[in-house]
Amino acid sequence: MTIQKSHREAYDVVLSNFPEGADKEQKLKALDTAATAETAADLFAAKMGARALAELRQRLPAGPLGVTVAGDTATAPALAGPPLTFAQVEKRWGYSGFRGEAEELKRRAIADLEMIKLSATDYERARTLGTP
């Protein structure tokens, strides 16, 4: 949800503050998927969904998982790579193997938003001073 919110805000900032040109078009194109996603789940599906599910499918054992639970986390052996990880949030269990990648995407979205805001401020300053 943070990625979606950050990219929507960044998209709006670019639309309203960046001058017409290649830089504006490039930024809008990069932000479009997240800015126009209906929900965070839709964004996940668009950005990571097919690849993530294919990766997970290759790692799932055919039989029952031998799950080890420790508090609000659990692990199960995978066919390949590190164990499958699960987390419990609000009494619901879910696969958490993409948590690291999702956190990195979130950090990047927040940093991108800050950079776009700084660029928008620079463009506004340049307009005020009358420089191209």
What do you see in this structure?
The protein is an alpha+beta fold and 132 residues long. 62% of the residues lie in helices and 13% in strands. The protein contains four helices and four strands; from the N terminus they run αααββββα. The protein has helices at 2-17, 22-36, 40-59, 99-129, and strands at 68-70, 73-76, 84-89, 92-95. It has a four-stranded antiparallel β-sheet with strand order 1-2-3-4, with no helix packed on it. The longest helix has 31 residues, at 99-129. The model has no long low-confidence stretch (mean pLDDT 88).
Q: SS-based structural class?
A: alpha+beta
Going across the biggest sheet, name each strand in turn. Answer: 1-2-3-4
- Largest sheet, if any? 4 strands, antiparallel
Give the strand tally. Answer: 4
The level of helicity is 55-70%
How far apart are the termini? 36 Å
Mean pLDDT value: 88
Kindly estimate the percentage of residues that lie in beta strands according to DSSP.
Answer: 5-15%
Low-confidence stretches: none
| SS field, number of helical segments | 4
Silhouette: elongated
Supply Rg: 20 Å
What string, H for helix and E for strand, traces the elements in order?
A: HHHEEEEH
